[in-house]
Design goal:
Order of helices and strands: HHHHH
Oligomer: single chain
Structural class: mainly alpha
Radius of gyration: 23 Å
Number of strands: 0
Length: about 160
C-alpha cells in the first residue's frame, strides 16, 4: 500500500473517531443530570444515548489495548533490546504500584472530608492513593533523570 493512501486512510479514521466521540460527549452533556427528576435519570440511564456512549468508549478501550499489543509485538520483532527495556519499565511501575497498594493509606471518608452522599469504599481510596504515589514517584524519577543525565555523561568521559 502506498504511504500517501495510508496516511489519508489514517487521517479519515482519526477524524471520524473524533467526530463520533464528540457526538457521544454531546449525548452525555445534554442528558439528565442530578437536578433532573428521578424518572428522567432512569430514562437516560436506560436509554440509547448512554448505551451508545458507553459502548463506543468500550470499543475505544478494546481497540487501544489491541493496538498497544500489536505495537509491542512489532517492536519486539524489529527492535528487541529497546522493547524489552520498555516492558521492564512497565513491570517496574506495576511492582511499585502493588507495593504502594499493599502499604495502604490512613485516609478515610472522614479524613478526606467527603460529604455524606459522596462516600466511597476504602479500597477505592487505597487504590487511588497508590496511583497518586506512583505518579508522583515516577515524576520525581523523571525530573532527577533529566537533571542528572548531563552530569552522568560528563562523568563517563
Amino acid at each position: 500500500m502506498d504511504t500517501k493512501k495510508l496516511n489519508l486512510y489514517m487521517s479519515i479514521l482519526k477524524i471520524s473517531l473524533v467526530a463520533v466521540g464528540v457526538i457521544a460527549c454531546l449525548f452525555l452533556f445534554t442528558g439528565a443530570d442530578m437536578n433532573s427528576t428521578l424518572q428522567d435519570q432512569v430514562s437516560f440511564r436506560d436509554g440509547a444515548s448512554l448505551s451508545f456512549t458507553t459502548s463506543f468508549t468500550g470499543f475505544l478501550i478494546f481497540a487501544s489495548v489491541g493496538l498497544i499489543l500489536i505495537f509491542f509485538v512489532v517492536q519486539l520483532i524489529s527492535n528487541p533490546k529497546k522493547t524489552i527495556m520498555s516492558i521492564i519499565g512497565v513491570v517496574v511501575a506495576l511492582v511499585l504500584y502493588l507495593i504502594f497498594l499493599m502499604i495502604g493509606t490512613s485516609d478515610t471518608n472522614t479524613t478526606l472530608q467527603l460529604a455524606e452522599d459522596v462516600q466511597v469504599e476504602q479500597g477505592t481510596i487505597v487504590s487511588s492513593t497508590a496511583g497518586l504515589y506512583l505518579v508522583i514517584t515516577l515524576i520525581v524519577i523523571a525530573v532527577l533523570a533529566a537533571f542528572l543525565s548531563p552530569l552522568m555523561g560528563k562523568l563517563r568521559k
